[in-house]
Amino acid sequence: DQQVKQNSPSLSVQEGRISILNCDYTNSMFDYFLWYKKYPAEGPTFLISISSIKDKNEDGRFTVFLNKSAKHLSLHIVPSQPGDSAVYFCAASEDNQGGKLIFGQGTELSVKP
Amino acid sequence: DVKVTQSSRYLVKRTGEKVFLECVQDMDHENMFWYRQDPGLGLRLIYFSYDVKMKEKGDIPEGYSVSREKKERFSLILESASTNQTSMYLCATYSWPLEAFFGQGTRLTVV
Asked: How do residues A87-107 score in pLDDT, each as one tens digit?
């Protein structure tokens, strides 16, 4: 059973507009959430994270929102750039699991010039 | 700068072969993880280790084993490769707070 779900396999956005990537989870014990970005033929790289005690975390063009009651998080990229084109994975962890991350299926973002 | 190095970028093996995927990290981390990435399934955890000689099963350990003889090295072993093990394999280690550092990945094809 998929505990972390990204229901959109792909997303296409025009350069300069906002990209919104969504992620839902089922395990209410998750208390730390992360987004990773992956280019083809490379390993994923860490993008941004959020603790369950917060509802928003911002880093430059990237903002992650957490809605605990809905078990939903989203990543906003504003403005989107062609270099943002990649696969984005959300991941979640329970504090007592010592780094064991559960990943979603990934969403492939394509930013068109 | 954390470095996680996987020994091969691309591998082609025959069904039934024993396959070794090697991973080395230079950050003196105790934790190391092996994932596989498949389209539509994301990254799935195969095995992980929090210490030398220690190993824990992840979500999909069947058909795999691991070896952790030294802190910096974590090997994934396919005892008898099968075509359904064709995948991208990713090794990772974590700093707190759970910022994972991944290797570049090994694209394994079993024919």
From this structure: 999 999 886 556 678 899 999
The tens digit of pLDDT for each residue in B59-69 reads 899 999 999 99
Confidence of residue A41 (pLDDT cuts 50, 70, 90): confident
Chain A residue nearest residue B98, CA to CA: A99
Q: What average pLDDT score do residues A34-47 get?
A: 90
- The DSSP bridge partners found for residue B37 are B43, B88
DSSP character for A103? E
Residue position matching structure tokens 């507009």? A17
- What type of residue is B81? A
With contact defined as beta carbons under 8 Å apart, do B49 and B55 qualify? yes
The candidate with the shortest Cα–Cα distance to A3, out of B99, B45, B55, is: B45
Whether B45 has its CB under 8 Å from any CB of chain A: the answer is yes
Cis, peptide link before residue B61, omega less than 30° from 0 = no
Chain A nearest-CA distance from B36, in A, is 11
Using the predicted structure, report yes or no on whether residue B95 has a pLDDT greater than 80. no
The whole-angstrom distance between B6's CA and the closest CA on chain A is: 10
Preferred mutation among B4, B38, B54, B98 to probe A, highest tally of A CBs within 10 A: B98
